[in-house]
Amino acid sequence: MTPCVVANSGTVTQYGTVAKYAAGQIEVQFSQPFASPPTVLLTPYWTCQSDAVGSIETLTGVTTGSFTLSSQNHGSTYYVNWIAIGQ
User: Fold this and answer.
1) Which residues of 24-62 are buried (b: 16+ CB within 10 A; e: fewer)?
2) CA–CA dist 44, 53 (Å, integer)
3) Tens of pLDDT along 10-36?
4) Which end of the chain is more exposed for a tag (fewer CB within 10 A), N or C?
5) Which residues span the domain enclosing 51?
6) pTM summary value
7) For position 19, which CATH number holds?
């Protein structure tokens, strides 16, 4: 999905959802780079599934232009929601 960007009083917020079809790492590019690495929050979203996720989505790196997440969770209906807040 296309990330969204909201700017307010110098604070920039970008957010989106990324599909995770395979276990391992995913790098997500910000649609606009931040001035410095932002704070990034992740939440899992598994549609049509009644089981809990198997592992925690882990943020393994953040730069001004992207972040990398990692876990063994994956599936045809498994997604990770994210929000990045910074300058």
Assistant:
1) eebebebeeebeebbebebebebeeeeeebeeebeeeeb
2) 8
3) 899 999 999 999 999 999 999 999 999
4) N
5) 4-86
6) 0.86
7) 2.60.40.2080
